[in-house]
Amino acid sequence: MKLKRQKHAKRNMGFYKHNFHFREPFQVLLDGTFCQAALRNKIQIREQLPGYLGGATQLFTTRCVLKELESLGKALYGAKLIAQRFKLRSCSHHKDPVSGSACLLSMIEEGNPHHFFVATQDQELASKVKKKAGVPLLFIIQNTMVLDKPSPKSLAFVQKSQMNELVPEHQKQSIVQLKEKEGLAKQEGEKRRKRKRAGGPNPLSCLKKKKKTQEGQEPSEKKKRRKRKRNRVKAEAMQSVQKSEEE
């Protein structure tokens, strides 16, 4: 089972490294619920997480998360002690602290530029994280840390980028310049010019067809004239025969 989990994590890490440029040391934001679950399941986050993710990690929390743990009292005192061991990542809520989940969400806005992982047991927070592309999600299940599979939002983002819909403008310009340098743009333009557009019927072909029909009608008229001439000759011959018999 452990080997299977490692393969699962390696595959998912490969996805984020290749498509969203995640690099070591991996930066992980942790909230109070994750620290509480680690304490309950006797998981050593600092020692176990680097081995699971396959690289060096930096563990962070925020002042808002610590304030929230303080407000919850003795029930989460142990989780607070764990969270205090991590580095504090500055947030924009110095004067007016917000909930831990709201604070972590604010840290991954605008495309997650700092390449944060989010570690939480909060289902509501997890569902909101999945709606953002390129944010890996960590949680604890059955005494084990698990890296969730890429969300549909992340998969859709990658698919669009592969279809060249999200290529930066400077890259598009460099592609055009390379084509011009290699003479490919000129060749493509010549091919476009050579394309024939669909037009109406050729008037000359129509005239030819009419001539053929006229020529085809002429022999039939000549035959009719010949038949009439033969009938006239026969009638005259019959009349002469009758005259000779009467005489």
TrEMBL record:
Location in or out of the cell: Nucleus, Nucleolus
All residue ranges annotated as the UTP23 sensor motif region domain in the record: 192-211
Positions of region (Disordered): 166-247
GO BP annotations, alphabetical order: rRNA processing
Keyword Nucleus annotated: yes
Function statement: Involved in rRNA-processing and ribosome biogenesis.
UniProt-recorded name of the protein: rRNA-processing protein UTP23 homolog
Organism, scientific name: Thinocorus orbignyianus
